[in-house]
Amino acid sequence: MSESRQNKSQENNVNSKVASELNNLIQIISGTSSLIENIWEGRPGSEKYFEMLRASIERAEQVTAQLVAQAGGSNCKRVLPSHLEQRFDEALIAGAPTQRKHSILVVDDEPMALELLHGVLTDAGYEVSVAQSGFECLDLFRRDAHAYDLILTDLSMPLMDGEETFQRLRQMSPAVDVVLMAGFVDSARLEKMMNTGLSGFVGKPFAPVEILAVVTSVISAAEQSKEGTNGIAAAV
Q1: Where are the domains of the chain?
Q2: Distances in whole angstroms, Cα of residue 212 to Cα of each of 88, 107, 143, 149, 202
Q3: What's the CATH number for 78-231?
């Protein structure tokens, strides 16, 4: 490899790491500002400071998007199989289903991200378990592979990242539904995972309504598929 190409590759690697960390940071700041707003809602003068914080977050999101593009990452806010796109739009309007409690395992090495997702999903009526590493996720899944309707995993984690976690989960149970969350992911890498059974991708930072719509669409599609299979089995 020529020196110029090697330097370019190293630069892209640095950009991708910076973009990923910035996205994670923005997601944490966004969630934290929402929590603060709930606490300080109605306090005199507080709205002025929240508007300044929102403007700063929006600017940071724009800068991060530029970094992601420069590093060759996916600029999609979400990626779902084509048959789930309509369900996503319907879920945005209808919200989370309430027929029965669905169980979700959230995997992220960032405690604040876990706390925020736990709150959003619990408020929507889901039963939520958390894991702070891919190893902990696999351990929980190994104990009871039928305990979770969906696994949400971050991509950037030490020792075992989200891609390897997803691959190992699929080896343990080819039918498991896994949705990936990431600030930065290479387009080719994401396409490869989608082709090998990844149920969806959500780009950080995301709004609560976005992650809820993705979760709802994936779980409802899986339930409908199971009902269809059970109906065929009963008929036979």
Answers
A1: 3-70, 78-231
A2: 9, 16, 26, 14, 11
A3: 3.40.50.2300
